């Protein structure tokens, strides 16, 4: 910088542009800084940088470095001698010895090299001795790998033990007395609470009007950007008669202060801001007792006088006490749309959706509000309930999965994470002591878990408060926890085990839940999703591959056998043991009802429900145990692997004896892994009598009493084992009474929630449910808000649909498809497809014929609403046919029945015409779907049926009085299926007449080619338009194929054959000869002698009749090792375009090297006149070869500047 200043002072501007001086300065920089200088210049787009720019860049770099670390100044400047510099320099020499290889050794024990964290001797040392070892051996403090230091380590990790933030390994951590005072950040919402004692700060308090149940109340709200939940004063909620479910609300402040309210309610209401015409809905607002939010007063005239920039937007308020706290869960109300601000110590006026609000600093002399206020920020809210949107999302997702079973391929390829998880299970899962033992599915097997004990302790305090308030709850909680210990699912640790050095230590919070359907049963949940230091235990674990069987597949096969039975595995997850090394990651704290002592530490020694890898490990353990009995129990093993959904088992047998044996085998195999399968239910009392009474479900005693009210839930479906029927129980206890009684109209959110909550995996009432989905689509088209009530027209449709749904309460359908002996029966599958403007559907039936008797049974039905974008009826009919094809293909593959044939019925003539035609003839939309239909089905399986006989029509038409009963056509199928096949509907020619406008044919382009039988050379492409020999050859072969097709009138769909390529090759050679040597060609063909003026006179030419080509006749005829082309090469003209393409082809095959190689290859088949010169021309014209041969040009030196040639003498 000084040099530049000196040159500018002396007016030596030319020296500032001296490139040699700039280069000398650059040479003094390290390589990394040179690269940064080049990057800086490239962004500036400067052709010739000056010394001024280099000085500015260097000064900028120095300022950046000085911000990272200020230079250390000393009173005395010490000159570092050259000897000291030489002493401090490290010289590293790498030598190799081919005769001997030295294996690295462990720096601690001296044995074969292993990581220090795995060295038992290193672990046995004290922490001080460990530090001494790593320091003396120059081992990195962070990763414990030798040959580098912490400064150069590329994998620095924070210790994390007891929230230590230092970059050393956990084995080098030193505990001190101050660790327990460190702050914890382990809650799910990382915000804080603070209390300010001030008189010069305004909060965001704004007047609002609450509207609920027709009541209006004026109050104030505090807009709190640091709160994660919205609160309302409970007294105000009681005054407005706000009702909602009671839940436990837990709030944490700073210094670990926790407040818990067990009777908090979740309510919803609307608020109105300063703009009276706009209303905003607040959902999931928690009631809170004694909110004690600060009061605030504002004198608007005084404010506008003191701060003139505020204008007229300030509202006056006197002792305004907020009754509502609006948090980030309603963030649109907090966002500032506009801000009017002044100086830093002055207030700001912000415009929100609720209106203008004044906040910020004001003068202390302006006595405008109270001198104390408290700002509350919610840190953690404990609740097991999901948000309404989450519930809706789960319902829609579940409905989509159910509807997609059988018509969409939901299987996913195994990801890399799933492969890693599977390898861990294969490596760690073993049998130990009559149980299956496994390791947890860690994402990183060398993971070091952060501190989590403090978070678990805080959550334990919350649980204990609830136990102290409810003695019965506390007694049941302690009893359940003691039960887990007695069953050896949990083990209490001693002090030495707690204090041992372990890397994978995690403390799990736990809480109790009671199922409303089972109020006498309390279950302790271990929360593996609880976050500590912004991470949870589940964040470190893999989910693992999906091991669950298809629920749809299990249910459709449950209806096959004569005798059916179900059971479930008791405490399935808890029967799988966890490897001892991983148990430390499953620690819990508990001290029963004694609050005066420190809690005991326990370890969960089994897989528990709540860990992300738990379901995968439990299913894998079940399947692996069953695989070991494949040879001894061949019938039971497939049932265990394929007919279990989670812990539920659905089996069946055709005889009582087979059922006895199968049940006994299943119980025996499960017992070998510690699984107890119990709660057995069957449709015959003889089956139950052969099962241990302790394993039989309590409700099975009603079978003996013939109580017809004994109904069991089987994977969500109600099954009556006495009648052996499926029943549809429409329970409306979750729907508000005023909705059912049509007192008020539902909102868009409520309609979606009710429709999507109906569980019908087998499609028994698809024709009813699709009406509800069409209603959802109508509501969506109306563009209503989620919480807006529907219109009159939609309300009428809603009332009709809900009444139809109520009629399904006593609906029954036989569980078993048929009562005939299926080994002697003839089984057929019939799929009916239909579509309308609103939806498309398909329904499947089984037709069973035993002698002269015929039965038809409902199997499954699927339906979809039409897209919002209008689509033609033929296209929708095609969508229905595609869905039917997928459904039929799925049932044929997964239904364990010997089905002889499948028939697909549709009333669309256009779809039948499409299916029976070539898919490539139609537009893309039609062609793609036709391709899949033709791949999944046989064209001859598709038949026409009149709309009046098409059962799927009942699902696609909006019928006011849709009836679903055991004897309805929807369940029993069309009547004609009970007749002989000769009496089924037959296609009549005039019935299949279709409108040509609906065919959606692809526009075809035709090219006419004239062929003559006597022509030796047909019309072939112009060689000048081709740059490659192979392209010209294949194009000619396709033209020859077209000629053969037109002559033989046979369509060929295969790829180009070798014979066609050879024929094209001969035609191209013949074209060269006839265009270059036409006179010679005719003379040789007629057996005459070539004229002396011909270019071919000096050659011994001959004409071969087989391929009609001129060839060179040599002296190699007696050779048996040479082929015919080598002995009689083809004569070509070097100037012809085809010849040049051939030479170029050989040149490229030689990878652009070696003219002699190309010459030798060509001479094996061709005799090209002046061949060497022709090959040289191709080499010379090849762009790639020209680029390779090119030499870089040396730029011409520029003129010297005047200052360089100016005489200073």
Describe the model.
- The longest helix has 22 residues, at 873-894.
- The chain has seven domains: 3-60, no CATH class; 116-172, no CATH class; 201-361, Beta Barrel (Cathepsin D, subunit A, domain 1), CATH 2.40.70; 417-727, Roll (HIV Type 1 Reverse Transcriptase, Chain A, domain 1); 730-806, no CATH class; 811-977, Nucleotidyltransferase, domain 5 (2-Layer Sandwich); 1065-1189, Endonuclease III, domain 1.
- Strand 35 (839-850) and strand 36 (853-865) form a beta hairpin.
- The two termini are 30 Å apart.
- The strands form 13 sheets. A six-stranded mixed barrel has the order 3-4-11-5-8-7.
- The protein is α+β, with helices and mostly antiparallel strands and 1209 residues long.
- 31% of the residues are buried.
- The chain is built from 40 helices and 42 strands.
- Helix 11 crosses helix 24 (748-756) and helix 27 (873-894) runs parallel beside helix 29 (924-936).
- Residues 1136-1190 form the Integrase zinc-binding domain.
- InterPro entries: DNA/RNA_pol_sf, Integrase_H2C2, Retrotrans_Pao, Rev_trsase/Diguanyl_cyclase, RT_dom.
- Residues 559-677 form the Reverse transcriptase domain.
Structure summarized in a few sentences:
With about 1200 residues, this protein is of the alpha+beta class.
Which range does the strand content fall in?
A: 15-25%
> What is the count of β-strands?
42
Mean pLDDT: 81
How many strands, which pairing sense, and closed or not: the largest β-sheet? 6 strands, mixed, barrel
Helical fraction:
25-40%
Taken together, the total number of domains comes to 7
Tell me the CATH superfamily of the largest domain.
HIV Type 1 Reverse Transcriptase, subunit A, domain 1
User: Which ranges are low-confidence, i.e. pLDDT below 50, for 5 or more consecutive residues?
Assistant: 70-102, 177-198, 364-386, 703-708, 1009-1014
Q: Helix/strand/pairing class, anyone?
A: alpha+beta
Q: Please tell me how large the radius of gyration is.
A: 43 Å
- N- to C-terminal separation? 30 Å
* Overall CATH class of the largest domain: Alpha Beta
**Which strand order spans the largest sheet, edge to edge or round the barrel?**
3-4-11-5-8-7
Number of helical regions: 40
CATH architecture of the largest domain: Roll
Overall form: extended
CATH topology name of the largest domain, in short, is: HIV Type 1 Reverse Transcriptase, Chain A, domain 1
